[in-house]
Write a structure and sequence with these properties.
By secondary structure, the protein is an alpha/beta fold. The protein folds into two domains: about 160 residues, 3-Layer(aba) Sandwich (Rossmann fold), CATH 3.40.50; about 180 residues, Rossmann fold (3-Layer(aba) Sandwich). It has eleven helices and 17 strands. It has an eight-stranded mixed β-sheet with strand order 3-2-1-4-5-6-16-17, with helices on both faces. A seven-stranded mixed β-sheet has the order 11-10-9-12-13-15-14. α1 packs parallel to α2, α5 runs parallel beside α6 and α5 runs antiparallel to α10.
């Protein structure tokens, strides 16, 4: 079985879908691996490192994918990449099907078996394959680093002969994987941290990291069966907005991470709230790619509005590409080695992890969310 690893063409994408370590593991399973020239450059992996691991280096995507059974990607293959992919191949990556639904028809034209790993069911045996968790963890970390680099004062309390420097106040909106890592990182840097989430069940996790949990009491369920936040009632949103407005004006840094799968990002930070923030404050909007939690966020830009800096990078994990690629490559290997490569050569098509991630097969869209 031939596995192809392609160079990412999305602007600003520095990650790669395989590392020399994962290449060795694929080869140990009996596969051959071909890597497109320069695929690892953004993650500080030279072509020679892939060759030393046993991979073949191809000069272009067409050569890399020729006769390949499995094609590993970070982001979805775009229309101009698809002609190089062999008909009937398996394509695995973070294919972003909600935002790039139009690509499914193109996958079907090539009869690709397309796996979107961000759709993995949240069950215990999928943890080692969970690309959302591994990448969101780094996104939460980097969000704080970028905020602190932009912020014009020290973060921890400092007691000096000239006086005391008060600690920075950080508010994290959304206590998922990215939010929890943002809390932990901000605490390590010495900030006073608060966090908000619609799911009351995360209160214990927030407080265990040393942050204050800002809560709107709600009688309705705030969590889907898959563990994600769901959209709340209008009454809850009104109370939520008032609480955030009262809290945000006291903050120096806001890290906003709130997302609802398959829906635009919820609006949490209004323009009036931004106006009430202290001059020099910073907002990092990790939901920028889904429309943003703040309407003033500009995608992939750093802008200043009403004296507040808004950071709207759409691909925060790529800003920590070396580690992001290492973790992502391990996620992909765990998925491929468990479900797609077996001694008898049979793919486990009926497995819950396959049916949960498979978008298209044999020219037909098969995932229930996209039929």
């Amino acid at each position: 079985m031939k596995i192809a690893v392609l160079r990412e063409v999305r602007e600003g994408e520095k990650r790669v879908a395989a590392t020399p370590d994962s290449v060795k593991k694929y080869i140990a399973l009996g596969a051959t691996v071909t890597v497109e020239k320069g695929a690892g450059n953004g993650s500080a992996i030279a072509d020679s490192a892939y060759e030393a691991a046993g991979a073949t280096i191809a000069q272009n995507a067409a050569d890399a994918t020729r006769d390949a059974a499995i094609i590993l990607k970070v982001s979805a293959p775009q229309p101009d990449e698809l002609p190089a992919l062999p008909d009937g191949a398996m394509v695995i990556g973070m294919l972003d099907p909600y935002a790039q639904r139009e690509l499914l028809a193109l996958y079907n034209q090539k009869k690709l078996s397309a796996f979107a790993l961000e759709l993995l069911p949240r069950i215990s045996r999928a943890q080692s394959m969970d690309v959302l968790s591994s990448q969101s963890n780094l996104a939460g970390y980097r969000a704080v680093i970028d905020a602190v680099a932009t912020f014009g004062k020290a973060v921890p309390m400092m007691m000096t002969a000239a006086g005391t420097v008060a600690p920075a106040k950080v508010l994290v909106l959304g206590a998922g994987v990215a939010g929890l890592q943002a809390i932990a990182t901000a605490k390590r840097l010495g900030a006073v941290v608060s966090a908000f989430d619609v799911r009351p069940g995360v209160k214990e996790q927030v407080e265990s990291l040393g942050a204050k949990f800002v809560e709107v009491p709600a009688e309705e369920g705030a969590e889907t069966s898959g563990g994600y936040a769901k959209e709340m009632s209008e009454e809850y949103k009104r109370k939520q907005s008032q609480l955030i407005a009262d809290t945000i004006k006291k903050q120096d840094v806001v890290i906003s991470t709130a997302l609802i799968p398959g829906r635009p990002a919820p609006l949490l930070i209004t323009e009036d709230m931004v106006k009430d923030m202290k001059p020099g404050s910073v907002i990092v909007d990790l939901a920028a790619a889904s429309g943003g939690n703040c309407p003033l966020t500009e995608l992939d830009k750093v802008v200043i509005k009403h004296g507040v800096t808004l950071i709207g990078y759409s691909n925060m994990p790529s800003r920590v590409a070396v580690d992001a690629s290492q973790l992502y490559a391990r996620n992909l290997y765990n998925f491929v080695s468990t479900l797609l490569i077996s001694k008898d050569g049979q793919v486990k098509w009926e497995d819950d992890l396959i049916t949960g991630t498979l978008l298209t097969k044999d020219g037909v869209t098969v995932h229930k969310a996209f039929i």
